[in-house]
Design a protein that fits this description.
Chain B: Pfam families: ABC_tran. Chain B: InterPro entries: AAA+_ATPase, ABC_transporter-like_ATP-bd, ABC_transporter_ATP-binding, P-loop_NTPase. The complex is a heterodimer of chains A (261) and B (298). Chain A has twelve helices and no strands. Chain A is mainly alpha-helical. Chain A has one domain. Chain A is elongated. Chain B has two domains: 213 residues, Rossmann fold, CATH 3.40.50.300; 60 residues, Alpha-Beta Plaits (2-Layer Sandwich). Chain B has eleven helices and 14 strands. Chain B has a six-stranded mixed sheet with strand order 6-7-8-3-9-10, with helices on both faces. Chain B has a four-stranded antiparallel sheet with strand order 2-1-4-5, covered by helices on one side. The relative contact order of chain B is 0.14. The chains are: A mainly alpha (261), B alpha/beta (298). Chains A and B meet through helix 1 and helix 7 of A and helix 2, strand 6 and helix 3 of B.
Chain lengths: 261, 298
Amino acid sequence: MINGTIFKQTLHANVKLWLMFTIVLTILQVVMIAVFDASTLTDVSHLVEGTALAGMLGKTTLLGMLASTFYSIHGVIFPIIFIIMTANSLIASQVDRGSMVYLLSTPTKRSTIIVTQAFYLIVALVIMFFMETIAGLVTIQVFQSDTDIVVADFVMLNVGLLLLMFAISGISFFFSSYCNLTKNSLAFGAGIQIAFFLCQLLSSVDESLNVLNYLTINALFDTTAILDGEHYWWKLIILFGIGLVLYIASLEVFKRKDLPL
Amino acid sequence: MAMIELQNVTKDYGDSRGIFNINLSIELGEAFGFVGTNGAGKTTTIRHLMGFLKPNTGTVQIKNLDAWQNAAEIKQCVGYTPGEIAFPDVKTGWEFIHQQAELLQLTDLSFANQLIERLQLDPSANIKRMSKGMKQKTAIVVALMADPPILILDEPTTGLDPLMRAEFIQIIKEEKGKGKTIFMSSHMFEEIEETCDKVAMIKEGKIITIEAISSIMSNEHQQFIIEFSNEQESTRFMQEKLDSVAISHTMVSVNIENNILNEFLAILSTYQFDNLTEQNHTLQEQFYHLYSGGQSHD
């Protein structure tokens, strides 16, 4: 089902972008953990008490701070941009440019192409978050050894974020497989994610905007629930399900559609 | 045995764009030419052969396999050059050729090397900076290198210089000599005339004629255009018992049976004329004739 030649070519064409985003994401994670100082944050949260920003700062533990910053802003938007660019280049842009024709003029099945490209995107995300998590754990050991941190919660935050990105990558990959034109693939494959991201961001700013939380799948990655040990599994399972369904849909839609090659 | 067969194939894109009720049958070892203006439906037809498009109605079969259902399987015996060239994201021509060879599970590149040499291609060049002709040559090498029994070529000589075009035609003739079935679309009528056994013309998505090249090229009689030195000569010539038509004051078109060519030349020698040209009875002429007034038949 996975074609080595196609995978090699995909890796070759996309690995630089992946490396860039992985490095940026890892550095962000490392810096945010390294500079954390519980006392400073308490001061700041006193300053902004009662304003819109108070909601965004959240709790003053290291993980609480990370949950309301890295795990809802930086760690979300950077991988989203990576996903949007990569998903489009994996299928839609090759159909749009016409270079897909060379794969399909060999005895390569359409399903093999989709499975191979989906495999690349998923593996790229898994390794990206794996490296970011390892870097985070090392940084915690080095800079926050005297802070009290539940490592399992930290790992779960990353697993949750990975599952959110799996679902989001499913959306982009689906539109990349469905659309024959890059502009359409990007319009849907990027527009929806950005809308989800903004909904989630706005809902955390003020109570009155909480309703937006119901409009975004990002809310299914419930950092508060993870840190408070509430039931969060079902939400993560839904994220996984969304991703899985979309990847399968991508395969089916690509097998059936007309290709203007 | 029909290697390629289209039966009542229709793909309607609306606004009378698309292809309608196409019936074609290409036999084993036959070279089949496919001509038509831009947008007439050549590429749409070829995309059906390649299994990229699913027909609204009708069936497309290659080696008795459905071109849509069994697309991947069929590619084991099909070489294809697309009408538009967009290479994947690789660096050099070699990288591309090797990648395609891997996908084709081809290990022996000796035929590819032969083609590269004959087409004077330099595959070590950066593929993005290649000229149109170079890219086309690369596409041709990739389509032919696995020695597939069926070749589907969508305007394969676009961008080739006249020397390379001649070399390409030579290669196609050799491939045909090996017994391959060839389906080739082209704008260049000479190409089709030189390589193909049969030709189909498509207009507004409909096949308007399918004919053997030999019957189009039949030359039992020939047509000449004579440009006389002055009007008197021209008028005098018109009184000869020949099948002639005045084109202008001094120009006459005359239709001569092959068996009276000598007589014709004897008559002509008594006239003063500036120019004598032979009009070849060609595919091009047929094409213009059919395209200007041709009725389509289904």
